Task: inverse folding
């Protein structure tokens, strides 16, 4: 009888408790903090512009987000049959409700604001909207760690 009552209470709590996810495509519940999920070595696996996938145009992009609030990005791509590499370093921060990620490149005055669409232990999906050009960029990163 106790087991049945416990099951009813647990089911009731599961139904009336709101979802723990702040992200549209994120996990419904996780025990890891948002910072612990974000801090990782990420590799770009998908790149979309206004909903169109750019498979051939994906640069070799790696992003390392550190727990101390710093990040680095390294990209390598073929431009006019020449290999070009770009390295970027700066700081990162969440907004107040942890739904956006700010990346402030070293030497820049203003950070780029990315909306977090999905934040899992092995997958990060962030979206950037350029208000001037009216273009939406969607970046999907994965990790093996």
Result:
């Amino acid at each position: 009888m106790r087991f049945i009552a416990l099951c009813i209470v647990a089911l009731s709590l599961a139904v009336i408790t709101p979802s723990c996810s702040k992200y549209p495509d994120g996990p419904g519940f996780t025990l890891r903090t948002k910072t612990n999920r974000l801090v990782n070595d990420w590799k770009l696996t998908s790149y979309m512009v206004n909903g169109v996938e750019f498979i051939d145009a994906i640069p070799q992009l790696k992003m390392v987000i550190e727990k101390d609030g710093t990040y680095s990005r390294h990209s390598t791509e073929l431009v006019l049959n020449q290999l070009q590499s770009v390295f970027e370093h700066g700081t990162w921060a969440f907004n107040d409700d942890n739904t956006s990620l700010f990346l402030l490149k070293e030497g820049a005055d203003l950070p780029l604001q990315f909306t977090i669409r999905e934040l899992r232990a092995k997958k990060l999906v962030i979206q950037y909207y350029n208000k001037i050009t009216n273009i939406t960029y969607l970046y999907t990163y994965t990790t093996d760690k």
Q: What stands out?
A: The beta strands are 40-49, 52-53, 60-65, 70-79, 82-94, 100-105, 112-119, 123-130, 135-142. Residues 2-16 form the longest helix (15 residues).
